[in-house]
Amino acid sequence: MEFDEKSDRRVIGSALSVGGTISGMSKSMPEIIGLPAIVAALSLAAALTPTAASVEPAAQTPPGQTPQDQTPTLQTPATPQPPPKPVPKELDSPRSTLRTFREAMEDPVDYELALTCLDLSIEGAETGRDNADRLVGILNRVEYRTYWQLPDAGELAARQEYEGLTEWKVFPLPKHERLLNGLRIGRQEIVLARTDDGTWKFSAQTVAGIEALYDRVARTVPILRGLTDERRRNISLWIESKLPAALVDREFITLKYWQWLGLGLVVFTGVMLDFVTRLLVAIISRRIISKRGGEARRETLRKTVRPFGLVASALFWLFTIKLLGLPSEALKLLLPAVRFFAMLAGVWAGFRLTDLVVEVFADKAARTETKLDDLLVPLVRKTIKILIFVFGLIYIADSMNIQITPLLTGLGIGGLGFAFAARDTLENIFGSVTVLVDRPFQVGDWIQIGDVEGTVENVGFRSTRVRTFYNSLVTIPNGNLVRAAVDNFGKRKYRRWKTHISLTYGTPPEKIDAFCEGVRELIRLHPYTRTDYYQVWLHQFGDSSLDILVYMFHEAPDWTTELRERHRLMLDIIRLADRLGVEFAFPTRTLHLHQEKAEAVRTPAPPPAAGDEERASGEGRRATRLVTDAAPWRRGKPAPYSFNEPSPVDGQTQIESRRDGETE
Questions:
Q1: DSSP assignment of 578-632
Q2: Using one digit for the tens of pLDDT, what is the confidence trace for 611-633?
Q3: What is the pLDDT of residues 272-311, one digit of tens each?
Q4: Where are the extended beta strands (E) located within 393-542?
Q5: How confident is the model at residue 661 (pLDDT cuts 50, 70, 90)?
Q6: How far apart are CA 312 and CA 332, in angstroms?
Q7: Nearest Cα to 454, choosing from 441, 466, 442?
Q8: What is residue 646's three-state secondary structure?
Q9: Distance of alpha carbon 19 from alpha carbon 8, whole angstroms
Q10: pTM of whole model > 0.70?
C-alpha cells in the first residue's frame, strides 16, 4: 500500500506532535494518563487530520499491466433524503396548538380538528371526543383565552431561552391557586409537548389523566363568565352533573356505579328492540311477499327475522355505549366485541334474507314452463352468499383492527400456487358456467351421463346432483360435463312406444283388419299421441299367435304423463278387442294325434270380395267410436299429470289421500 509523499509527511508530523504533547502530559500526570490514553490520542489525531483522512490507498498494478490498463472504480452516489415534512401552522407552537384547540371546540364544534391537537397514543381514538370535552371544560374554568402568554413559532426560533424546549405547562400554574382554593388535584397536569414530527400537542399523559382531573375540577370550580359549558353537548357529562355523588364518585372494576346501571339499561333495551324488530320484519316481509304473489313457509320467515333483531340490537348497543362516557380500557374491550357481534349478525341476516328471497323466486320459477330459472335460482343464491361472506369477513377483520393489505399481498404472491392447487375447483366452476350458457339439461330433466341415469335435482358451482331411479343421489363434478356425452331424455318431444299385440290364430282376417284400423283410430283420437306418423299392421307369425305391430309416439312433457296416456290407450285397445270379438293369444302348444281314417272333405275359405277391407275398416272405426265416446278426454285435452291433482272420489289430492290412509 503506497501513499503520497506530502501526505506521509503531514500524517507523521501530526502524529509526532500529538505524541509529544501526550508524552509531556504523561510526565506531569502519570497517575491519570497511561499507555491507553496515548494510543487513543494517536487514533484521535489520525481521525482529525483532514489530509490523512482523505488519502486513499492506491491500487497496486498487477504484473504485466500499466496503470492505464486498470478499470476505474465507480462509487455509487448516496441516495438523497426527502425533505422533512413541513409542520402545519395550526400545531407549530404551544400558542398555535392551544388557539387551534379552543377555537375548534367553540360552536359549531369541529371535533376532527380538535382531535389533531391531542396525542392519542395511549388512550386511543374511542374516547377522543369525551376527552376533548373534558379538556376544554377544565380550560374554561381556569383561565380565559390568554394565548399571548404562550410562545409562538417565531419566538421559539428567535429567543435563546426557548432553545431545546420540548414541553410547556398550561395547568396548574401559580396563578391558578386562587381559583382552585386549596383543591387537591394530585399529579395531573395539562402539558403541551413537542412530538417527533415537530408538532405541538397536548401530551399523551395529559390525555390519559384528563378524566380524573376533570372530575376534581368540574365539581368545585365554576365556568368562567362568557365561556361555553361543555356539558350541553356531551350526554355523559350532563348525566353525571345531575346524578348524586354516590353514583358518580364510586367505582367498581374501573366503571362508575352509574355507568354500570347505564350498561344494564342499554342491554335490556337492546333485547326489547330485538323482539320488536323481529315482529316488524315478519309483518313487513309477509305483506311484501303476498303483494308480489309469492309464497314462503312460516319456518323460513321465522329463521329470517331472527338475525335482523340481533343486528338492530348490536347497532343500538354500538351507538349508545359511546354515550356512557366509559373509560378507554372498557371501550377497547366492548366496542370491538359489539362490532364483531354486529358483523356476524349482519352476515347471518344476509344469509337468511337470501334464503327467503330465493325461496319466493323458486316458487315462482316452479310455475313457469321454462326450467332455466329453476337452474339459475340456486346458483344465484350461492353467489350472493359467497359475496356476503367475503365482505363480512373483510368488515370483521377491520372491526378487529386486522390489517387486510398484507393478507391480500400474500394472496397475490401465492396466487400461482393457489391456481395450481385449485385447478380442479376452477375447472368445475367453468363447467357450471358451461352448463348455464350451453344448457345441455335443466333441473328436472331425465338425463344419462355415462353409467349415471336419473333426474337432475341441483346444479351448483362445483357439481351437479342427479337422483337415480333407485333413489340414490349421485354427485357429478361439473368439470366432467364439459367432456362427457349427455343424453337428455327430458328434451324429447316424442316418446316412442313399440309393442306387439298377439291375436289367436283362429281370428278371421276381416277381424284383424277391423282391429288394426280401430287401433289406428284410437291413436288418432287420443290427445297425447303423434298423429302424423304411426304404424299398426299385422307384423309376424309367432309361435302361438298372430303378432300385430304397434309403433307410435306419445307427445308428453314428462315420463309420468307418458305412462298415464299409455295406460289409457292400452285400456281402450282392450275394450276395442272385446267389442270386435277379438281374442288375445298367450303361449300355448296344441298336440294333434293322427288316426288312420278316411279324410274329411275340407271346404276352403272363400276369396275376399270387393269392399271387404273397407267394410272391416269401417267396422273398426265404429267400434272405436263406441269405445271412446264416453271417455272424458274426448271433451278436451287433459293437463299433464300432476301428483297433486284431485282424486275423482273425494276431491282430495293423491298425496293428501295417501297421507290420510297412512294416518288411518
A1: HHHT--B------------SPPPPPPPPPPPPTTHHHHHHHHHHHHHHHHHTT-G
A2: 778 888 888 888 888 878 777 77
A3: 988 888 888 888 877 877 776 666 677 777 777 788 888 8
A4: 446-449, 452-459, 463-468, 473-477, 486-488, 495-503, 535-541
A5: very low
A6: 22
A7: 466
A8: strand
A9: 16
A10: no
